[in-house]
């Protein structure tokens, strides 16, 4: 649930991200929502290489299935890495050493 | 073009619309569990990218938690590096959620301005996990 919460904080701040999919497609947009499966909804989308990928030219908002995401590229200044590390350590402790 | 049986869209939409819990209680549980859904896209023209790299355009009639979707007036847009986009009319389609990658809301104004016969592009790559 940690990354679900993390994405929700990004949604609240209307952060612009680039989602790289497992089919190499890169979609940039504003994070509109995220769910427990880390499915994402982006607004005002644009494809990074529209000449190579004109397939989504008429799409302005999209839903991306979590299972197909390879990376979510985030602006460095929008992420509090220390806080994220702390949260991860806390969650790891809760789950226990034998996992 | 394939003929859509009367009432099929309504039946399938109804099947996907009813949550497993049934009634208002079930619906409330579903809303608490998910914040992102395809609800606002129902009855809209959408673009679906599947895991095998195909692109489908149609009107979203229904969906469920597994991202299974029902599209009516569905057509596949086949891209080629040498010829323009081929549009294959398919009719009423159900796309299984585990094969679904992206669902995009089609801006019909922009879509009507695009000349598909002039587009030269390689087909999308399949998803590799």
Shape of chain B: globular
Largest sheet of chain A, described in full?
5 strands, antiparallel
Poorly predicted runs of chain B: 18-34
Distance between the termini of chain B: 35 Å
CA gyration radius of chain B, whole angstroms: 16 Å
Greatest interface (CB-CB under 8 A), with counts per chain: A-B, 33 and 38 residues
User: Which sheet architecture does the biggest sheet of chain B show?
Assistant: 5 strands, antiparallel
The residue-averaged pLDDT of chain A reads 94
Subcellular location (chain A): Nucleus
Organism (chain A): Durusdinium trenchii
Family (chain A): Belongs to the snRNP Sm proteins family.
Protein name (chain A): U6 snRNA-associated Sm-like protein LSm2
Give short descriptive properties of this protein.
heterodimer, A: 99 residues, alpha+beta, 26% helix, B: 129 residues, 3 helices, 33% strand, globular
Describe the structure in brief.
Chain A is of the alpha+beta class and 99 residues long.
Describe this structure in words.
The complex is a heterodimer of chains A (99) and B (129). Chain A is built from two helices and five strands. Chain A has 99 residues and is of the alpha+beta class. In chain A, a hairpin with a 5-residue loop joins strand 2 and strand 3. Chain A is elongated. Chain A starts with a helix and ends with a helix. Chain B is globular and about 40 Å long. Chain B is 21% helix and 33% strand. The longest helix of chain B is centred in the N-terminal third of the chain and has 11 residues, at 23-33. By secondary structure, chain B is α+β, with helices and mostly antiparallel strands. The chains are: A alpha+beta (99), B alpha+beta (129). At the A-B interface, strand 2, strand 3 and strand 4 of A face strand 5 and helix 3 of B.
Helix and strand topology:
The complex is a heterodimer of chains A (99) and B (129).
Chain A: H1 2-12, E1 16-21, E2 26-34, E3 40-47, E4 59-64, E5 69-73, H2 81-95
Antiparallel strand pairs in A: 1-2, 1-5, 2-3, 3-4
Chain B: H1 8-17, H2 23-33, E1 45-50, E2 55-63, E3 69-78, E4 86-95, E5 100-106, H3 108-113
Antiparallel strand pairs in B: 1-2, 1-5, 2-3, 3-4
Keywords (chain A): mRNA processing, mRNA splicing, Nucleus, Ribonucleoprotein, RNA-binding, Spliceosome
Pfam family, one (chain A): LSM
Domain Sm (chain A): 5-74
């Amino acid at each position: 649930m940690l990354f679900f919460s993390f994405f929700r904080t990004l949604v609240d701040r209307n952060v612009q991200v680039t989602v790289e999919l497992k089919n190499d497609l890169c979609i940039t947009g504003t994070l509109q929502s995220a769910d427990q499966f880390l499915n994402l909804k982006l607004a005002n989308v644009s494809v990074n290489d529209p000449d190579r990928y004109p397939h989504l030219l008429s799409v302005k908002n999209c839903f991306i299935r979590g299972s197909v995401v390879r990376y979510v590229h985030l602006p460095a200044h929008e992420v509090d890495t220390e806080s994220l590390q702390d949260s991860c350590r806390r969650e790891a402790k809760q789950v226990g050493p034998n996992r | 073009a394939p003929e859509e049986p009367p009432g099929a869209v309504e039946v399938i939409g109804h099947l996907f619309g009813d949550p497993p819990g049934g009634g208002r209680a079930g619906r409330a549980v579903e809303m608490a569990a998910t914040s992102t859904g395809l609800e606002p896209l129902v009855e809209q023209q959408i673009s679906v990218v599947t895991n095998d790299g195909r692109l489908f355009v149609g009107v979203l009639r229904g969906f469920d938690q597994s991202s299974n979707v029902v599209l009516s007036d569905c057509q596949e847009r086949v891209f080629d590096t040498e010829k323009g986009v081929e549009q294959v009319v398919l009719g009423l389609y159900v796309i299984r959620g585990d094969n679904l990658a992206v669902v995009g809301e089609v801006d019909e104004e922009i879509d009507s301005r695009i000349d598909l016969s002039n587009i030269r592009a390689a087909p999308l790559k399949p998803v590799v996990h």
